[in-house]
Amino acid sequence: MPVVQDGPPPGGFPSFRYARRVPSTGPSGITLFAAGAAVMAFGFYKVGQSNRERRAQKAANLAARAALVPFLQAEEDRRWVNANQTFLARQEGIMKNVPEYTAGESVYKTRWMPPAKRVGIWE
After folding, report:
1. Which of 11, 19, 48, 100 is most buried, judging by how many CB atoms fall within 10 Å of its CB?
2. Name one GO cellular component term (predicted).
3. Does residue 104 contact residue 88 with C-beta atoms inside 8 Å?
């Protein structure tokens, strides 16, 4: 009996692709890098513009508050005068039986001295 061996068909097998060939779809790497850089540059520009607007708004708010300071100070001065008058009236009522006491007068009879300064490493 003859040996029968399986073999290729006449003319050989058709060729097939065995190498990895990924089709190049989409933009190249440099294009993606340039697009990312452009988006970031635009973002930095917008951040800078919003910082300018925020700074201008903050300056306007500060100017508005500065314009209100004299009115607020006048209200505080008025409140302090009323509170001081009430305090002096209460003080006179409490100390009415103490001879030679004047309400509102300083209880210290010495000349004012500034606090002593530390010497050494704290200066």
Report:
1. 48
2. respiratory chain complex I
3. yes
Question: DSSP string of 10-48?
Answer: TT-PPP---S------S--HHHHHHHHHHHHHHHHHHHH
CB 82 within 8 A of CB 97: no
Determine what percent of the chain is predicted with pLDDT higher than 90: 54
For 76, phi then psi, to 5°, come to -65, -40
Nearest of 89, 121, 91 to residue 107 by alpha carbon: 91
Q: How many CA atoms lie within 13 A of 94 on its CB side?
A: 8
Is 25's pLDDT higher than 90? no
Mean pLDDT of 8-37: 89
The answer, yes or no, to whether residue 107 has pLDDT greater than 60, is yes
